[in-house]
Amino acid sequence: MTADKIFVGRKAELEQFKKVLEDTRGQAVLIVGHRGMGKTWLINKMAELAENHPNFKCGCVRYEVTPTDSVDSTMALMMDNAFEAAQIEDGSFSGTARRLEQWRSILNVINLGDLAMSLRRDPAKNTRDQFLERLRFISKQMPENGRAIFIIDPEKYMQKDSDQSWAIVVNGLPDKIKLVFAQRTEDMLVESATFATLDNISRIPEKRLDVLEEQAVDVLLNQRVTDMDYTVTEVRKILSKYNGHPYALQGALDLLKAGTKLEELPQDPTGIAAAQWKKLCKKGRDAIRLFKAYAILEVGVPGEVVTAVSELDTDTLQSVLADNFLSGLLREEGYGKRIYHAILADHILEQIDEAKKNKYHRMAVEVYQQKLMEAKNNQTMPDALAATRLPEHVYLAQGKQAFVNAMLNECRKPLTMLGLLDAAIALSERASRFVKEASTEQARILSSLGVFYKMRGHLEKAKQMHLKSLDINRTLGRKDGMARNYGGLGLVYKWRGELDKAEEMFREGLKIDEELGQQEGMASKYGNLGIVYRTRGDLAEAERMFEKSLDISEVQGMTDLNANQYGNLGNVYLDRCELDKAEQMHKKSLEINQRLGRLEGIANQYGNLGLVYRKRGDIEKAREYWGKALELYKRIWMPHMVQEVQGWIDELKDK
Fold first, then answer.
1. Residues 84 and 200 in one domain
2. Is 54 strand, coil or helix?
3. Which helix (H) or strand (E) segment is 322 a member of?
4. How far apart are CA 176 and CA 613, in angstroms?
5. Which of 210, 235, 259 is the last residue of a domain?
6. Domain residues for 635?
7. Cβ of 338: how many Cβ atoms within 10 Å?
8. Are 451 and 488 within 8 A, CB to CB?
9. Which of 89, 412, 444, 538 can bridge 533 by disulfide, Cβ–Cβ 3.0-4.6 Å?
10. Are residues 115 and 255 in the same domain?
């Protein structure tokens, strides 16, 4: 929204919020009101009040939750943003990094020092528990007059049962932490019996936001009715029919400033969105296409996404948004801009016929698919917005089966790489509702869930997913699927330290791969068996397994597997203190990874070579290679490896 959306009234609500800030306790605040009553308007003013408070050092971060966002995925995103913001130097933000700037406002309040890694999220651990741990850390590092305010503003509604998870978080909120939720009167947190039992919740106002008082309306008119062809008295008389409705008043004043005549304004508040759309349409076809695209995209998106979906170029986008009326219909949110209010967005969607909606969704699918493909080809981190939003647009454009295929074939790996396991699990569970029982697709989804749960450290659940998938594949006679299931079970047992069971599973899978002639599966199983033997300390057998894997991958031209096994052999030689051989293997792996552009593989081999040089006593070379590894891990966003390599470097400080 533009600066013309002047805030007025709500003095009692702001006084209540001041008392919330004065209270040291961790608290949740519910801002309750019908659509169009100015909840977001009020929340923005609360954030401004907090950040400029004379007695408190406050930082505010805003999150808009869509109906497809789970509580855990929201918390995971918040933690990832916190850690990313902690790595960025002041003044280095791009124009689209609004949320990271907001996070810096919080981090600037706390005494972070060298503790940035304490904000890192571990995808293998429970998200909610980690979220509370990070909040406790932030609270502990804050001064007594510090406050961290997190705004959760749902787009339409929250997922079913999300009140239960948020209630657990609110119940455990540490001092100086405030969660602010915007809620309609019928929304989940308002109606939640669980939420109602908590004693650290403030509801502002006590019932719900009502229309603006007459005095507040007068203040608004006196400030905004300037440079118009009407007097305040004339405008007040006509706008009185809106009875202080915030959305209608602000929308009507925007329309007047854009040239709409007083007599052309709608008769009641429900007509304002239609009037805004009518005015927008007069701005030309480019404006219509742009705002239809924003409505379809639903969430805040960067410019390159909306230009692709609207089929406009950047210059045209900038030209359209140079119009003050049009730019005032957008607000900064998340990854970029979105339509400033759901009332207007919903009205615009109603103006798009089903065929056109399908076309826009297909354009969104195309742009998000392209982003994910570019990341895959360039060996860079995938785009989180693309990975999380692609399935929804696929579903709306192409249906349930396409949603399943997109999740399994396009989004599963990117979500895994990004550590967005909560989103991956939620999307996989949704996909499971679209497939037949005991089908090939169900087996694949269960196998994927097994991988996600294993990465979360939920090993028993991972095991159950792989076993269910194995049963289906066995019934269907899908031996290739069975081989993958045995491989997944082997990894679960390896993580448990049950090396005999792990070996058994890998060998069962290997037997099928050999029967089917699945060379890639065979090479992978030999590699995993090599890791089992190395873990046992049987370096001779580990070496044999890695070499067998390498024999297959070299013949089949599986260059990425070649790189992996050269690295594994290097680790075996390092364990034996055969440092020349170790260096040779790691350099071979590094060369292949560099040729393929696999940044993670390059970083791994820089790290391994650093270990070789440290063992030789070449401290400077170890420091050099670990420095290279550290920079790459930061670039491709692998915080757990950043922490490990930084630890190695720190150990060298006194050497």
1. yes
2. coil
3. none
4. 47
5. 210
6. 606-655
7. 23
8. yes
9. 538
10. no
The structure tokens 């290739």 sit at 480
Structure token digits, residue 229: 């062809």
Same domain, 124 and 222: no
**Domain match, 224 and 135 both:** no
Q: Note whether 262 and 246 are same-domain residues.
A: yes
3-state SS class at 458: coil
Q: What is the CATH number of the domain that holds 86?
A: 3.40.50.300
What pLDDT is recorded for position 96? 38
Amino acid (one-letter) located at 170: V
**Cα–Cα distance between 306 and 324 in angstroms, integer?**
19
- 61 in Cβ contact with 78 (< 8 Å): yes
Q: How far apart are CA 490 and CA 315, in angstroms?
A: 54
* Mean pLDDT score, 587-608: 90
Q: How many CB atoms lie within 10 A of CB 293?
A: 22
Structure tokens at 555: 């013949």
Residues 96 and 201 in one domain: yes
In whole angstroms, how far apart are CA 594 and each of 440, 544, 589, 600, 611? 37, 26, 9, 10, 19
pLDDT of residue 89 exceeding 60: no
What 3-state class would DSSP assign to 197? coil
Per-residue pLDDT, 98? 66
Q: Taken in order 295, 297, 303, 307, is the CA torsion positive or negative? A: negative
586 contact partners, CB below 8 Å, separation of at least 6: 566, 567, 570, 605, 608, 609, 612
| C-alpha 308 chain-centroid distance | 21
Do the domain assignments include residue 228? yes
What mean pLDDT value characterizes the chain?
90
Structure letter (DSSP) for residue 301? B
- 152 and 191 in a common domain: yes
